[in-house]
Amino acid sequence: MRVIAGSARGLKLTAPAGLQTRPTADRVKESLFSIIASRRNLAGARILDICAGTGSLGIEALSRGAASCCFIEQERPVLALLEKNLARVGLDGRAECLSLDAMKGLNLLSRQGKQFDIAFFDPPYSSNLYATVPEALSTLSLLSDEGLLVAECSARTALAKRYDSLVRIDRRVYGDTALEFFVRENP
Q1: CA-CA distance, 27 to 102, in Å (whole number)?
Q2: What pLDDT, in 10s, does the model give residues 88-133?
Q3: Is 101 helix (H, G, I), strand (E, B) or coil?
Q4: Is the pLDDT of residue 24 over 80?
Q5: What is the largest CA-CA distance in the chain?
Q6: How remote is the C-alpha of 13 from its chain's centroid?
Q7: Within 10 A of 137 (CB to CB), how many other CB atoms are there?
Q8: To bridge 123 with a disulfide, which of 43, 51, 56, 66 should be the other Cys (CB 3.0-4.6 Å)?
């Protein structure tokens, strides 16, 4: 697993041993960032990486010019590895790491009045969070008016077409992985 482009291009990221996390494959990550680049410029973007794991997606966004990234990861050993990855690629100064479960993290960020331009959401495929996190992003107003939610899920199970004001605009399948893209309806 490596950073594909930008200031940290080619640097390797470390993932924990075992099946505790499922880092996004490099070819899926390349496609994801090509799709994002066709929609918006990452320069200066505020990123949220929910169920961040190794931080691969948020780190890629930072490497490509995002202004900041808030990582939410509840597993402390995995969060420690994420923080080491950030330091290794020299992007820790533009990152905030929250050691909380996804919903507690979203509620905290909402109370702080934070908003994000892009949110990455990649929980375990069997997670119940697919039903609650997209809804929370919408109702807690954590996405900017032009914000984009990118959810990674199993190709076998499509997510809902809408979560409150967030509507799915695209779905791409790469082997066992699907990427689903949501934006605000009538921002």
Answers
A1: 26
A2: 999 999 999 999 999 999 999 999 999 999 999 999 888 899 989 9
A3: coil
A4: no
A5: 43
A6: 16
A7: 28
A8: 51
Q: Rounded to two decimals, what is the model's pTM?
A: 0.94
On average, the pLDDT of the chain sits at 92
Each residue's pLDDT tens digit, 52-74? 999 999 999 999 999 999 999 99
CATH homologous superfamily of 26-184? Vaccinia Virus protein VP39 (3.40.50.150)
Q: Where are the alpha helices (DSSP H) in the chain?
A: 26-39, 56-63, 76-88, 102-111, 129-139
Strand order of the β-sheet with 143-154 is 95-98, 68-72, 46-50, 116-121, 143-154, 177-184, 166-174, 162-163
Single-letter amino acid, residue 23 = P
Please provide residue 113's backbone torsions phi and psi, each rounded to the nearest 5 degrees: 75, 25
Q: Across-strand partners of 48?
A: 70, 119
For residue 128, report the phi and psi dihedrals to the nearest 5 degrees. -75, -10
